[in-house]
Amino acid sequence: MSKDIKSVNYGLEKIFEGAQDFLPLLGTDYVEFYVGNAKQSAHFYKTAFGFQSHAYRGLETGAKDSVSYVLKQDKIRLVLTTPLNSKSPINDHIVKHGDGVKVIALWWMMRERLIKKLQAEAQNHIWNQLWRRTNMAR
């Protein structure tokens, strides 16, 4: 069985010559979880995984719709958010999907270039869709 296992070296060489990364990501800024009880979840992450409190947003800071705890461990930041109102979109999301990740915020370089590139791609896509619909209608 061990003879069938091959060691694979995944290098940093480009698969396609001339290929460029149009979205040069530098890392993850934070991950936001929508949870039913942010205070309890924050306590769990701190005691079980060693995260430390970094920031808080809630009634005491003027937020009336939700409470958020920001936890940090080295370069990892988690935002645990819970709704204060049963009619909020956050609560609707939790009722429908349960506790889970809602936002993954990424760091990238050259923001303006990225936005222009994505807008151009979106316009090309929309134009192609309209062109197809018009030609199919003929």
UniProtKB/TrEMBL annotation:
Keyword Cell membrane: no
This protein's UniProt keywords: Dioxygenase, Iron, Metal-binding, Oxidoreductase, Pyruvate, Repeat
CDD domains noted in UniProt: HPPD_N_like
Top-level enzyme category: oxidoreductase
Stored InterPro entries: 4OHPhenylPyrv_dOase, 4OHPhenylPyrv_dOase_N, Glyas_Bleomycin-R_OHBP_Dase, Glyas_Fos-R_dOase_dom, VOC_core
Entry's Gene Ontology molecular function annotations: 4-hydroxyphenylpyruvate dioxygenase activity; metal ion binding
Cofactor(s) annotated in UniProt: Fe cation
Record-level GO BP terms: L-tyrosine catabolic process
EC identifiers of the protein: 1.13.11.27
Superkingdom per UniProt: Bacteria
PANTHER family: 4-HYDROXYPHENYLPYRUVATE DIOXYGENASE
Protein's UniProt name: 4-hydroxyphenylpyruvate dioxygenase
Organism listed in the record: Jejuia pallidilutea
High-level lineage: Bacteria, Pseudomonadati, Bacteroidota, Flavobacteriia, Flavobacteriales
